Amino acid sequence: MKKSLIISALLAGAIAFSATAQDSDSAKSLESGRVDSPHKDFQYPLQMSALNYRNARIYRVIDHPDAYIVLYQRNSHEMAEVTIPKAWYAMDGKKQQKLQFRPIYKGVEPYITVFSRDGNFDHVVLSMPLSRRSSYWTVADSDTKVSDLEKESITLEY
């Protein structure tokens, strides 16, 4: 009984010591800007991406002749809206396409993703059902006025 207790205590100590040694090695590699790989021949410098993104759940997209009005979830239960000009979806050789649509699988809630590069707006992706028969799509009233059609960027309120 005493032997098995001593042996298990020694094993636990050896495991704890090896885990501590691995943690200190990985901390040193992060400080030096190097990421350790299982193979010592393949070490690459740690690189941070210039591209960042933010997601928000979509409640509804209102289709207007000149823009898409996206109603999305802000905080935990509040709703906010953002206007996205339809001109951003057009692909011409001069400008980058700023609006993209991505179909989602059945059962997945629609969401908006706003990408920024180096802190500046880059593009927006609406991940949602592409069928206009979906309950997430609706058409704007004919007398609805939309402003900010000439804007070059958007930000989501959180």
Task: Produce the secondary structure layout.
Blueprint: H1 2-31, E1 34-35, E2 44-45, E3 51-63, E4 67-74, E5 78-85, E6 99-102, E7 111-117, E8 120-127, E9 137-139
Parallel strand pairs: 3-9, 6-8
Antiparallel strand pairs: 1-2, 3-4, 3-7, 4-5, 7-8
Overall description:
Strands 3, 4, 5, 6, 7, 8 and 9 form a seven-stranded mixed sheet that branches. Strands 1-2 form a two-stranded antiparallel sheet. It is built from one helix and nine strands; from the N terminus they run H-E-E-E-E-E-E-E-E-E. By secondary structure, the protein is of the alpha+beta class.
Number of strands: 9
Whole-number mean pLDDT: 82
How far the N terminus sits from the C terminus, by CA atoms, comes to: 60 Å
Radius of gyration: 25 Å
The largest β sheet comes out as:
7 strands, mixed
Extract low-pLDDT stretches: none
Q: Tally the helices: what do you get? A: 1
- Percentage of residues in strands: 25-35%
Share of residues in helices = 10-25%
Structural class of the secondary structure composition?
alpha+beta
Q: State the order of secondary-structure elements, H for helix, E for strand.
A: HEEEEEEEEE
Global shape? elongated
